[in-house]
Amino acid sequence: MKKICCFILIFAYYQGMAQQDFEKRLAEAKTAYAANKLDDARFAMQQMMQELDILTGKEVLKVLPEKFDTATANKTKDNVSGASGWVGVVVHREYGTRAADGSQTTLEILTNSPLVGMLNTVLSMPMMAGANPDQKIVRIAGYKGLSQKVSGPNGREDYEVQVPLTNSLLTFKAPGLSQDKVVELANTIKIADIAKLVQ
Questions:
Q1: Other Cβ atoms closer than 10 A to 192
Q2: Contact 170, 182 (CB under 8 A)
Q3: 3-state SS string over 1-38?
Q4: Rounded Cα–Cα distance for residues 66 and 73 (Å)
Q5: Can you tell me the distance from the alpha carbon of 172 to that of 124, in angstroms, rounded to the nearest whole number?
Q6: SS3 for 155?
Q7: Which of 40, 41, 58, 60 ranks highest by number of CB atoms within 10 Å?
């Protein structure tokens, strides 16, 4: 019980600190703007946007699945990192050890992903995906996505699913499973909830 109480207090503390950082950056931006220090105001706004992206990433972690099949979330390795702007924030979660070589199932969301445009082109032109036997257009929780073969350790064939969400990219990898099983597991992700948060 003590561990749970400590965890709740630490979580509340960090949430409060993140909120304070956001408000601090907003105040810095207003002060710099009022003093006609536009470069300083811009820098403070960029810092504020990064804080906002990280807060959003932490909200995304809350809606990610607790487990996929028998692989349970390893929340100690949850991570929200990156610099907002040109390259986005990465939300990362790992799940159990599934493959014999110790590979883990992973779920990542990358905001402001430069790959979204290319993926949307493939999804809007099925002939492009059809030309590559390693790719297949699929529906994941009502969203159009791409399932593709990727090379795993020792030449093993693994599969990943990528789903574009406006300007963000969701990537789900489950090493050691068949393509159909990876698609089945991906369909359990609450993609609509994630999409609302990252838009």
A1: 12
A2: no
A3: CHHHHHHHHHHHHHHHHHHHHHHHHHHHHHHHHHCCCH
A4: 5
A5: 21
A6: helix
A7: 60
Which amino acid is residue 54, in one-letter code? I
The single-letter code of the amino acid at 118 is M
pLDDT digit string (tens) for the chain, length 199 residues: 343 333 333 333 344 444 567 678 778 888 888 888 888 888 888 777 778 888 888 999 999 999 988 889 999 999 998 765 556 789 999 998 765 667 889 999 988 777 888 888 888 876 666 667 788 889 999 999 999 998 877 677 889 999 999 889 999 999 888 999 999 999 999 999 999 998 7
Pairing of strands 157-165, 143-151: antiparallel
- Extract the tokens encoding 63: 């809606």
**End-to-end CA separation in angstroms for the chain:** 37
Angle, vertex CA 75, rays to CA 112 and CA 169, nearest 5: 20
Q: Are 92 and 111 in contact (CB under 8 A)?
A: no
